[in-house]
Amino acid sequence: SSMEVLSLSPPLSLPVVLTQDELKKMAAYKAVEYVESGMVLGLGTGSTAKHAVDRIGELLRQGKLTNIIGIPTSKQTQEQAISLGIPLSDLDSHPTVDLAIDGADEVDPHLNLVKGRGGSLLREKMVEGACKKFVCIVDESKLVKHLGGSGLALPVEVVPFCWKFTAGKLRNLFKASGCAARLRNDGKGEAFVTDNGNYIVELYMEKEMGDLRAASDAVLRIAGVVEHGMFLDMATTVIVAGELGITIKNK
Ligand code: 5RP
Fold first, then answer.
1. Rounded-to-integer distance, Cα 6 and Cα 9, Å
2. β-strand partners of 143
3. What is the pLDDT of residues 110-126, one digit of tens each?
4. Is the pTM of this model over 0.90?
């Protein structure tokens, strides 16, 4: 792996505090520099990826990019891309994707990710799993020592049928990590429903999960589970925007 640090230049004499959204935008714009005309592009979901999709739309409109085909990772991104006039397709027609750009909730030192707090983890995993390159874009608040380390949830997409039974299986699986499981709600007292008509069970760990690959395999063996938010060994590049500049980490 390699690491490149680009500092903000020219050096600023006064400290300028960038908002988290400005950092997200910096990372997103840097990632769009990887986009070339003619590419099939995986379009991510969330507030960071949104900046990348906006930028791609802008470059298309200016004629600086041509012949792009976007593969959206959610209905939300699909709508955004349509409003920007980005031509779209899907994995059925384009099973190989040149490059995907998407955010993450957590990034560990090995570039493993937690994704899906936006609820789009299944389509994201399908699209990003089909990519030759996956550039992940984050602000520095997303960096963790180990996945689950931010104290926020690890999302698991489950079928609605007897979701409590499935949540119990998940809790049991991670008993040694002090796991609590909760159904994501939509903020209006109802269950949050994904683009695929499923629910999201959120797992909170008191302790580290240990072997992530083993944890991933065990979760996927539970019959009611559709997919989980650990993206292991998938990102080829992570672009981190911080107050001191942009850091690019390559696999
Ligand atoms: C959606 C995701 C997002 O990429 C992740 O939640 C980060 O979101 P944001 O860029 O808004 O911080 O995985 O399912």
1. 9
2. 107
3. 999 999 988 999 999 99
4. yes
Rounded distance from Cα 10 to ligand 1 centre (Å): 31
In the block, which residue shows the tokens 């910096």? Answer: 26
Residues 119-175: tens digit of each pLDDT: 999 999 999 999 999 999 999 999 999 998 788 899 999 999 999 999 999 999 999
The yes-or-no answer on residue 208 being catalytic is no
Ligand 1 centroid, distance to 248 Cα (angstroms):
19
Q: Is the CB of 116 under 6 A from ligand 1?
A: yes
Taking the CA atoms of the chain, what radius of gyration do you get in angstroms? 18
Smallest CA separation from ligand 1 atom 5, residue: 104
Cα-to-centroid distance, 48 and ligand 1 (Å): 7
What number is the ipTM of this complex?
Answer: 0.98
Say yes or no: CB of residue 117 within 6 Å of ligand 1. yes
